[in-house]
Amino acid sequence: MGFEAAQPILETVLRRLEQSAALEELQDHITDLRDAFRVDHLVYHWVSGTGDQYGCGTYDPAWVERYLAQGYLRIDPVVLGCFQRFHPVDWKQLDWSSRAARAFQKEAIDYGVGNQGYSIPIRGPNGQFALFTVSHNCDDAAWAAFCAGSRRDLILVAHFFNQKALEFEPGRLPEQGQALSPREVDAMTLLAVGHSRAQAADALAISEHTLRVYIESARFKLGALNTTHAVARALSRGLIVV
Amino acid sequence: MIRYLYADELAREPALQRAMFRDRADQFHSRLGWDVTVDANGEERDGYDAENPLYVLWQTGDGGHGGSMRFLPTTGPTMVNDHFGHLTGGGRIESPLIWECTRFCLSRGASGQVAAALMLAGGEILRNFGLRHLVGVFDARMVRIYRRIGASPELLGREGEGRGRVSVGLWAFSETARAEVACRAGISPAQSAAWFEQAFGAPAQAVGA
Q: Is there a domain that residue B205 lies in?
């Protein structure tokens, strides 16, 4: 199974996501992200602090309708297991032991959701809670390999997606982009002019280990999955000057 | 044994919860003299305890509290970003792949093995949740304890003097450190993994795993 999600494709999709100007476009982006990760389904579900809900994803609309009509939110082990949490969850880790949960799972599989899933709970501002889920049909070994190779990308993409969705929240004040700290600016600048990590760490008189945390944080703030793209974005936004 | 409990789960074990907050009062208020809030029941809490953090606790054979620490993702409110930005490069450190670890507490008389067990748990969290780093806020004497158990952090910055000194440090996962810390804790990596699974369940397994 060719699971290796190609990062260049992912980065292209992320850039389009970042530039999107309307909530309706998120449905297209989540479909593209699903294709980039080469899995059956990707779903995003958001519940605001005041209980407003929004969702988009690639599940069969008949399943979404069925899910809502049956009020499965109350028994779905994924939702129950992720609410108020912040660690990512392989569906195998959840409690499917009740009869209701087993019937629910069987039905979900019948609707093509897949027998495997990985869900990332996200805590947004003001009590916002979102769930970003990837699901697929394959055996355990293939799924374990996919999760091991893609979970960090999935976690980052989940948060980027949520940030975008939050921008479209009604009544939301425009927020300043997350500012890079002076140290992060230093680190990205040195990498931009071609320093290796070791050279950059040396120039800043910090360890390479410490440099990595600033790069990691800058990467997230810049909405990038890898350092090359983070540097490119910092340059194009004028956050660093070389 | 090592327990992993979110605040809402810990609240269902009131005796253990009380013991943890009292030991924190003992450590941070009585022994270190930090400016922390202790309530009428002698329990120390701050605002981050209200964020439903994940706690790691060492539970003693008789069910008591041997030591603990607290985790929150750096994408939300964290002590390191709200109060120690000047020690971490002049701004927020922020990523879902970086969690903060605070209120590292050892009950009075806890052995060095307890500190090592907690660090072992920190490694499980790094490894199993795909994290890259833990950023920690800790007191002066922890520097020595971390060194003794083979889990010295990279120091990002520190301020204050003597008992009041506060440091911000950084950990990443390594198999070597894991083996060493497991050895100091007197806990096999397999046992540690089993406790983690007991709390969070077992994921889909690779062939032969």
A: no
